[in-house]
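User: structure tokens for this one?
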Amino acid sequence: MPLKYNFQRRIVYLRNEMQRQKIDAFISSFLPTTQYLCGYQGSNGLLVVTNLKSYFLTDFRYEEIIQTEVTADVKIVAQGSLSKAASKKKIFSSLKKVAFEKDRLTVAEFENLKKNLANKKLVPVSGIVENLRAVKDDFEIRTLKRAFDTSDKVFQAIIGMIKPGMTELQISAEISYLHKKYGAQNDAFDVIVASGVRGSLPHGTASSKKIGNGEFITLDFGCVVDGYHSDMTRTICVGKPTADMKKVYRIVLDAQQKACDAVRAGIAARKIDTIARKHIQSRGYGKYFGHSLGHGVGLEIHELPRIAPKSKEKLNVGHVITIEPGIYIPKQFGVRIEDTVVVRERGCEVLTGSPKELIII
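Assistant:
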């Protein structure tokens, strides 16, 4: 994320929350948090935000990068433990209560933090930054669009390559290569390629199985562009599908479209899940749809809000969510179709541009 982006709104939000919770400082080494609050995209860093200043610490590998990438008030290059270095720099000298992200630290990291801030009260917090991150601003949505444009290009390229006899691993490798060829930093997650009977595995990562004639292939993939993730799924068919395969595909497609059509600001997230789930149940395939309908996407591939039967969230303008129903019939085949959409006041904006009608190659 370029330095020209104004991170001040996010820091102001965080400080308001700190004051509400009577916290003197917020500390994080979780990379999505540090990128979100100060622009850092390296692999090792520590952000400390007090009510007056922000501090960013890293090691010598990123000394040059942080000068142009990081917007913290004070930038420090240190050796060894960054929390120990922060303590030695007396960043916490006049502070009493220091908040840390309890869901983001290992036991070892917490023990190290406790050792280096021995005379401070460590306050575990959860969701402070995640709740802000759930609502994307225009800059973030533009970045996400670049990621989705890249994955759409990859999909168009890969359907021209797939043929019987290729292995799932070969297809996966081509997708990963094409993502980087078209400018992405990385895959967003391990590419899912599940063909034939393996299609009944919702998270069937690619195997050495060869593609056969008359088989569905579920392709679930995404990429990372400037830290932001794309996520899409298409199920295609190699050769002629059976009538049953076409029927199931249509059920999933209709369920997916009904859910997309219902997305708008103010609606309960669980209602979107219910709309898709009820359609699949009404066609007699309810027991074959076992996962939640979707999730938020951004600096992480899974983030708030959750689009699930027990979700308590309501959708807000700027939420970016997946809509991904599926039917998975053991020992036969599976179908999943996934779009990622931006919640708008009276509907949604679909980020995934690839066609959803069944593609037969």
